[in-house]
Amino acid sequence: MKRVTELTAILGIMALFFLNSCQSTTQLQVLQPAQFKIPDHIEVIATVDRSKPGKGAGSFFEGLLTGEEIGQDKNGRRRAFDGLSNTLTQTPRFQVRHTGIVLPGSKKVNRFGRPLDWSEVERICRQYNADALAVIEKFDSDNFRSVKEKTRKKKDKEGNEYIETYFESRMKMDLNIGFRLYDPKKRVILDEFTVRRHADASGRGKTEEIAMNDLPSPRYVSEDLGYQTGMDYAMRIAPTWVMVVRDFYKKGKRETKKQMKTAAKYAENGNWEKASKMWEEILENEPDKKTAGRIAYNLAVAAERLDRLDLALSWAEKAQFDFGNKKARSYTELLNRRLNDVRLVDYQMPKRP
After folding, report:
1. Residue 291: closest CA among 18, 24, 22
2. Residue 353 lies in a domain
3. Is residue 286 packed enough to be buried (19+ CB in 10 Å), middle (13-18) or exposed (0-12)?
4. One domain, residues 94 and 127
């Protein structure tokens, strides 16, 4: 049974290697729509951190109970603010004003407090010439660490079996961050939303202390999760650029092997127009249906890279329906979603007179 398992693993690795040798990858940026449309009159957003625990908050005692490191939430809040601000900076939808304002928030760090007074919202917006405020309203990180003694059978150099004792540590962290988006013109809170993130880590050592020290610092984990959570909320309210990966084929049959390789080189060097022209020339005289499907698929990828999405969909459908390329089905679905996203982003962008 062990030999069969090993053989299966080897065959899997060989198949993966063969697949990778037949394909190459390319990256492109696509504009991902927000979760909902922000009113057109909002063009400039100012960011504020209001997640600092208010007076009387029991965060110190909560930290003792949940194993938080000193400064863990403070640094996590700062990184959440960075993630929010930096990601909003990259959207074509808004201009962003980084105020650096830190205000005390709720006494209960895991709950929303009362909203900011509208007079305060209006004052900050006037000061920074902004149309809305994106505010971090609450921040709470809880981490739990444990260690267990374990044993396993081992053999020494002489082949004698013995029992080894070791310790295995685990850490779980939950992050809970709340955001509000204030519209002072309409005096409405456009959005009140909680973003949650979770992380797990494990460690091992000969002693409990070594095993616990093998875990990452909760402070650094909180900072990393905080930044990601700030990014998550920015992507909720604003169309943002994201990097995606596409595969394409670089090998064909013997007759077209050299041409396919040359076309792939053009694509890998970013000359998609030249690669497309070569693939179209190969496709005109390609008798092999499988290779033709691969070429049509490549032409779809090239059209997407050149931001010709309708043409990309046409080639992907041809690869799927005319030549039976299996990968083209999922790619066709993906391109349909992309086309819908483009329409959605256009709807979410403000309409200029």
Report:
1. 22
2. no
3. buried
4. yes
Residue 20 lies in a domain: no
Inter-CA distances, 123 with 102, 106, 182, Å:
15, 21, 12
Pairing of strands 44-52, 23-32: unpaired
Query: How many whole angstroms from its chain centre is CA 206?
Result: 36
Question: Could you tell me which residues come within 8 angstroms of residue 302 by beta carbon, excluding any fewer than 6 positions away?
Answer: 248, 267, 272, 275, 276, 279, 312
* SS3 track for 28-46: EEEEECCCCCCCCCCCEEE
Tokens matching residue 72: 């863990």
- Mean pLDDT of each 10-residue bin along the chain, 353 residues long: 40 41 86 96 95 61 47 82 91 93 80 94 97 94 90 85 92 93 98 94 92 91 93 96 94 82 94 96 90 96 97 98 96 98 96 68
Rounded to whole angstroms, the Cα distance separating 136 from 51 reads 6
8 A C-beta contact, residue 93 and residue 35: no
Q: Are strands 44-52 and 161-183 parallel, antiparallel or unpaired?
A: unpaired
12 in any annotated domain: no
Pair 253, 291: CB distance under 8 Å: yes
CA angle 163, 166, 169 (to 5 degrees): 150
Alpha-carbon separation of residue 117 from 44, 123, 193, 247 (angstroms): 20, 10, 19, 52
